Amino acid sequence: MITRACDPYDWPGLLALIQRAFAGMEGRIDPPSSLHRMTPETLAATARRAEVWVLGDPAQACMVLTPKPDGLYLGKLAVEPNLQGRGLGHQMMAFAEDRARTLGLPRVQLETRVELAENHHFYQRLGYIEIARTAHDGYAYPTSVTYAKSV
Known about the structure:
Largest sheet: 7 strands, mixed
Number of helices: 4
Strand content: 25-35%
Order of helices and strands: EHHEEEHEHEE
Number of strands: 7
Strand order of the largest sheet: 1-2-3-4-5-7-6
Shape: globular
Structural class: alpha+beta
């Protein structure tokens, strides 16, 4: 079952899940992930200004959903590495799309790094379309790809 993570919550445990899920990016993406600046306290603060959703107890997958005027922004989608390939990511993505509809938002939008081809294939298989490429501050070339799907 997917539930909203709210205080009190095991923020250190959830951060550890995200770190495990994102470990495969180490050394592959430039610049490094913003995850390096995340702490249990900043994750808890994120949950107070956005929606942090988790699948399972303890969490097997999670994501951050942030309502914006033009759509629902999905960030930090993470699935426990030993459970990847079992449909948990699909469940989380379907939930995000349902959540956007519930909030009356027209689309789900997300970003992934240029180097992470496996992420591009995953989102494209789910019907997401590339809408932009952007560069992090200080970079003269695209470092992120933005995908969106109308709901």
